[in-house]
Amino acid sequence: MTVEEIRDIVRQSVTRVTGIAPGEIDDASSYRDALGLDSLSALEVMVDIEYAFKIKVPEERMQSIKTIGDTIQVVQEYLSAAKS
Fold first, then answer.
1. Predicted local confidence at residue 82, as pLDDT
2. Rg (CA), the chain
3. The domain containing residue 37 runs over which residues?
4. Contact yes or no for 53/78 (Cβ under 8 A)
5. Cβ atoms 73, 35 nearer than 8 A
6. Of 49, 51, 73, 79, which is most buried, counting CB atoms within 10 Å of its CB?
7. Residue 81: predicted pLDDT
8. For the domain that residue 40 is a member of, what is the CATH number?
9. How far is the C-alpha of 63 from the C-alpha of 23, rounded, in Å?
10. Per the structure, how many domains does the chain have?
11. What is the mean pLDDT, run by run of 10 residues, along the chain of 84 residues?
12. What is the DSSP letter of 54?
């Protein structure tokens, strides 16, 4: 899966939870400041992403995710680990 495909799926997940158009979401968008998500909504996004990619991200790792770019990087890591 390409980075662009991952990015599109992550944006779709954020859109489902927030209603923000995918075109308004970029890699630098922070969940709290740019997207206005509280911790519960951010968790909802991450659960949606885990389901979409069929991965499980530990809670400790989720806490380090602050931006869309962080999310994409984590998804790439866990998809790569799943292939190994």
1. 79
2. 12
3. 3-83
4. yes
5. no
6. 49
7. 87
8. 1.10.1200.10
9. 25
10. 1
11. 96 95 95 94 95 95 95 96 78
12. T
Distance separating alpha carbons of residues 47 and 65, to the nearest angstrom: 13
For residue 2, give the nearest of 79, 64, 55, 60 by alpha carbon. Answer: 79
CA–CA separation, 35 vs 5, rounded Å?
A: 21
Crossing angle of helices 3-18 and 68-83, in 10° steps, is 130
Nearest to 54 by CA among 21, 26, 81: 81
Which pTM was predicted? 0.91
> How far does Cα 43 stand from its chain's mean position?
10
Where b means 16+ CB within 10 Å and e means fewer, 14-45 reads bbebbebeeeebeeebbbeeebebeeebbebb
Separation CA 80–CA 38 (nearest Å):
29
Residue from 12, 6, 32 nearest 24 by CA: 12
